[in-house]
Amino acid sequence: MMSDQSYRLATYADATNNARAGLVVGDRLIDVSLGIGLTQGQARALPIVSVLDVLERWHDIAPQLRELAGKVRGGELAPQAISLASVRLLAPVLYPGTVFCAGANYRDHVAEMSRALSLPPEPDPHELGLKPWHFIKASRACVRGTGSRIALPAYARKIDWEAEIAVVIGGDCRNVSIEDAMHHVAGLTIVNDLSARDQFRREGVSAESPFRFDWVGQKSFDGALPMGPWICPLDEIEDPGNLGIRLWVNDELMQDSSSSNLIFSMAEQVAHLSTRVTLRPGDLIATGTPAGCGAARGRFLKSGDRVRIWVQTVGELETEFA
């Protein structure tokens, strides 16, 4: 829901190449620390350097961000705002404390993979009394910003794309209800949960062994989680359960779906994870990918490929591969 106080929260590289929190308002960006200082009548920047600093104070600082966005859009802080095109955006959270990734969580993707593997249709996990299923991805090693050029790992040949909407936690969250879960969310961003499909099982280990899976090799190579371009505040999302999501490889549309196909909703995922660990500001939950991955097509990323992901209201994430 766009308004005069609409904004996006980003991390950008300043003139000295330091990462700083920036407020994106249209095609302009203002440093959060400087901007909030000015709105409070101070002529100096405040000690709010990173997006993590913002998220750790989210419920107190969000109204100030709205006020700041209104002043930028109204022209009151025009001299302090710079062209968005003139700055380099980094991953919006440097770095998430924990990255949780949902597995098999879009109806169309589950159906697609069942067909590809000649398996019967999967029943709805709710009917079986099952809970959301997540794995953890390395944070600092995997996270990259929009526009990054990512080297495909030398040990794998089948690197797959997975467009996902990611929830960004904005407050400590432990044992919360589904009804209350989204109150602990600051906003949404976009990730590409890259997967090395040929590294799922460890060679030489029996198919019956409980130790046959290689989650690190498959999911946590360097650059395995492009993220961005920014965080869209949750209160600007009209319906998180009905967001369009698309992915293109070299301008060829591969994934085209909606979060209405989520099996476990964003709220269900937040609530469930909060029963296992305390979610902290800046933690990330990648909520699952829809149909259209390369595995079902027998097609995978190669050097020179460009991937673009669009999520309705949130924005676009672009990546090139080498």
Question: What is the subunit organization of this protein?
Answer: single chain
How many structural domains in the coordinates?
Answer: 2
How confident overall, as mean pLDDT?
93
The unreliable regions are: none
For the record, the CATH architecture of the largest domain stands as Alpha-Beta Complex
CATH superfamily of the largest domain: Fumarylacetoacetase-like, C-terminal domain
Helix fraction? 10-25%
Strand order of the largest sheet: 7-6-17-11-12-14-8
Computed Rg: 20 Å
Structure annotation, total helices? 8
CATH topology call of the largest domain: Fumarylacetoacetate hydrolase, domain 2
What does this structure look like?
There is one protein chain. The chain has 322 residues and is an alpha+beta fold. Helix content is 19%, strand content 29%. Helix 1 crosses helix 3 (58-73). The longest helix is centred in the first third of the chain and has 16 residues, at 58-73. The mean pLDDT is 93.
Outline of the structure:
The protein has 2 domains: 8-90, no CATH class; 99-321, Fumarylacetoacetate hydrolase, domain 2 (Alpha-Beta Complex), CATH 3.90.850.
Please supply descriptive tags for the structure shown above.
alpha+beta; globular; 7-stranded mixed beta sheet; Fumarylacetoacetate hydrolase, domain 2
